[in-house]
Amino acid sequence: MKVTFPHMGYMYVCLKALLRYLDIDVVVPPMSSKRTMTLGTQHSPEFACLPLKINMGNFIEAYEQGADTILMAGGVGPCRFGYYAQVQREILQDLGYNMNMIILEPPQKHISELIVKIREVTGERSWLDIIRAIRFAWFKARAVDEIERLVHRIRPREIEPGRADEILKKAIGWIDVAEDKKQLDDAVKKARCSLIRIPVDNTRVPVRIGIVGEIYVMLEPFANQEIEKRLGELGVEVERSIYLSEWINDHLFMGLLRMKGSKAARELAPPYINHFVGGHGQETIGSAVMFAREKYDGVIQVQPFTCMPEIVAESILPVVSRDYGLPTFYLILDEHSGDAGVITRLEAFVDLLQRKKEAAADGAGRKGVEQCADI
Amino acid sequence: MRLKVGIPRALLYYYYYPMWKGFFTALGAEVIVSSRTTKDILDKGVKQAVDEACLPVKLFFGHVLDLKDRVDCLFIPRIVSVERKAYICPKFLGLPDMVRHNIPHLPPVIDVTVNMCRKEKNLYKAFGEAGKIFTGNPFSIRKAFKYGLEEQERFERLNRVGFLPHESIEKMNKGLVAQNCSPHQHGEMTLALIGHGYNIFDSYISMNLIGKLRDMGVRVVTADNLSGSIIEDRSNELPKRLFWSLGKRMIGSAFHFMRSDGIDGIIHVASFGCGPDSFTGEIIERHMRRRGSAPLLNLTIDEHTGEAGIVTRLEAFIDMIRWRRAAQ
To answer: What ipTM does the predicted assembly reach?
Structure first.
C-alpha cells in the first residue's frame, strides 16, 4: 500500500510525519505546479472550485509515481468540500486509474465508523503508537506555523529582500526531515536562529494587512499566487486569520486544545452574518472585524471562484468595511494564472493604504487639527 | 387593516409558495407576490448584488427591490435545511443577511430560521415565530400552520399528477382544489428537465424553455412529477448520501429518468457558477455516459439574454433524438 494525499500548503510535512511514524509507505505528490493545475482542470467539472481541481492534479501526479491509495477528508456540508472525494473517485474511475480512496468522514452514527477507516490505513499498529504519531505530526504543524509567523514579521523589514524566503524554504526542509521530537526541536531552533540573524530595519513601520478567506487558498501559496510573499516584498506585514495548527485543532481535534481558534472569529460575525453559512464564511467576516479592532490597515479576502460561503461573506464585507473604516480587497482565484494583473492590483491597494497611513501619521503629529471620521 | 406580506417570486417560491400563502392568509394577512420577472427586475438585481453571486440570487435581489415599497413586511426566511441531515445551499443560509446588508430602506423582514437538519419539528418553531407577528393566539397560529401544510400537500399532489409547479400554483390561485387526471400534453417525445425550479420555471430566466420545448412537440417532465420516495431511493444509489436537498432531487430524478423507457432524453439546466450543480451535473453526466442509454444536453444560463444560441441547441438536440429513433 502506497498512500498519498492532497496538498494544502505545508500540510504535507505533518501528514508525511504521521504516516512515516507508523511505517506506512508514503508518496508525497510533487509540489503543486502548472502541470498539476493543467492535469486537474482537464478532468474536473468546469465550475468546481479551485481546490478540487488542484487536488485532482495532485492525485494524478501521485499515481504516476506509484501511489495506489488516497487519504482524503470528507464532510457533511453544506460546503462542497464534503463531496470532493466522491466526485474525484468518479473521475479517477473513468480515467481508469485504479486507486483506493480512504475517506475520513465525521462519524454519522457511531465513532466506530471513523475507527474502522483509521484501521484501514494503520493496519495492526497499537492505538498508543497512533496517538504518538498524531502528537508528533501536531508538533510539526506547530513548528511550521511558528516559522511562518516569524517570516511574516521579518519580510517587510529585511534589508536584503529575499533572505527570509530562502531560509523559510530551508527551514521547512529541516522540519520535514526531523525524525523525532528532539531533532524537530533542533530544527526549529536552527531555523529561528537563522531567521533572527537576518539584518532588518526595525525603524520601518510597515503597513499591516490581515488575510481572511477560504482556508485552502489561504494556506496554499501556489493557489493564492504567493500573496504573502508578494505583499512582504511590497513592504507589508501580513497576518493570516488561520494557521495550519489552528485548523487542525478546530477540525480534527474538535477544538480540544485551548488555543486561538475559529470560535472567537465566529462570535464576532453577528450582526453581519447571524448564522453559519458553511465553509469559512462566518469566520471571514468575524476575522475581518477582529483585524479592524486590532487596527490593521487593511484586509484582503482570498476565495476560489464560485466558492459559495465566501460569496456570502464577500457581499457583506463592504458593510464591515464601512462600519470600521477598514479598506478591503478581494482576490478571486481560479485556474488562470496571469500574475501581472494580481501584482498591479496589490500594488495599487498597498499604495492606497500607505498614503492613508502617512496622512493619518501627519494629521496626528500636527497639533490643533481636529481629526474626524473619514466620510 | 390587513398586513401586507411580500413574497419575492424567486428561489424557493417555486417549491413552497402554497404553504407560505396558506399560512399567512389563514392568519389574516394579505400576501403580495412580486411581478413576473422582466428585464428591468433582473437588471436591478444584478446591479445590487455582488458580482460573484449566481443568477437566481441576483434575481432574488431584483424581486425584493420590486416588492419593498408596496408591502408592510417581507418574508425572507433563512432556510437552512428542509429535511434531516441535508442542507439547501450556503447562499440560502446567508440570504437574509445578504439582502439586509445590500438593499437600503427595507421594510421589516421576517427572517425566521427553518432548520430541520436535526429535528423535523423545528419547522413549526419557525412558523410559530413568524405567526407571533400577526397574532398572540397560539391556537390560530397552529391552525394556520396546519392549513399551510394542507395547501402544500395539495400543491404536491397536483405536481405528481403531472402539472409543473408554476402551473399548479396558478391553478390553485384560480381555485382548483384537486384533480385526479393528468393534464393533456401533446407531443411526439418526452424530455426530462433537470434543474433548480427557480431556473426552469421562471420563463424569463429560462428563456421560456418549457414553452419552446412544447412548441417543438415535446412533453416535459421534471423531478416535481416524481414522488419523494422514488427520488430518495434512486439517490441512495450513490456511495455517499448527498447533503444538498435540491441536488439530491436532481440526482435522484436523473437516475430514475435515465432508466425509464418513456423518456427520450434529459436536459440539465444549471446556472453559471452554481456550486452544487457543478457536482451534481458532473455525477449525472458520468453515470449517464457509462450507461449510454439516454442522450443528455447540458445548458448553462446566466444574465445574458441571447436566445438564438439556446434555440439552436434545443433544435439540434431534438433533431438528434428524432434521427436516433428513425435509425432504430
So the answer is: 0.90
Model pLDDT for residues B219-248, shown as the tens digit of each residue: 999 999 999 999 999 999 999 989 999 999
- Count CA atoms closer than 13 A to A232's CA, side-chain side: 25
In chain A, what residues touch B85 (CB-CB under 8 Å)?
76, 108
Minimal Cα–Cα distance from A50 to chain B, Å? 12
Name chain A contacts of B50, Cβ cutoff 8 Å: 311, 314-315
For residue A164 the three cell numbers come to 527570509
Residues in A 82-101 with any Cβ partner in B closer than 8 A: 82-83, 85-87, 89-91, 94
Q: Which residue is associated with the grid cell 485532482? A: A56
CB burial of residue A102 (10 Å; 0-12, 13-18, 19+): middle
Q: Between chains, do B90 and A319 touch, taking CB under 8 Å as contact? A: no
pLDDT in tens, A216-253: 999 999 999 999 999 999 999 999 998 988 888 877 77
- Phi, psi for A102 (deg, rounded to 5): -105, 115
Spell out the CATH class of B189-327: alpha beta
- Which candidate, B41, B32, B45, places its Cα nearest to that of B72? B32
The whole-angstrom distance between A272's CA and the closest CA on chain B is 7
Range of weakest confidence among A30-34, A101-105, B210-214: A101-105
Please give the angle made by the CA atoms of B201, B206 and B212, to the nearest 5 degrees: 90
pTM: predicted TM-score of the whole model, two decimal places: 0.91
3.30.450, 2.60.120, 3.40.50, 3.90.930: which CATH number matches A2-125?
3.40.50
> Is A266 in the B-facing interface, judged by CB distances under 8 Å?
no
Q: Give the gap in angstroms from C-alpha A314 to the nearest C-alpha of chain B.
A: 7
Give the pLDDT confidence score for residue A370 in this predicted structure: 52
Measure CB to CB from residue B243 to each of A46, A77, A85 and give the nearest one. Answer: A77
CB-based contact (8 Å) between A46 and chain B? yes
Average pLDDT along chain B, 328 residues, taken 10 residues at a time: 91 94 94 94 93 92 94 94 88 92 93 89 90 91 94 94 92 84 83 94 92 93 93 92 92 94 93 90 93 90 84 94 90
Q: How far apart are CA A209 and CA B257, in angstroms?
A: 52
Cβ–Cβ gap A48/B282 under 8 Å: yes
**Cross-chain residue pair A86–B239, CB shorter than 8 Å:** yes
Domain with CATH 3.40.50.11900 in chain B: 189-327
CATH class of residue range A206-375: alpha beta
Mind listing the pLDDT tens digit for each residue in B281-324?
A: 999 999 999 988 889 999 998 887 788 989 999 999 999 999 99
**Residue A86 to residue B238, Cβ atoms within 8 A:** yes
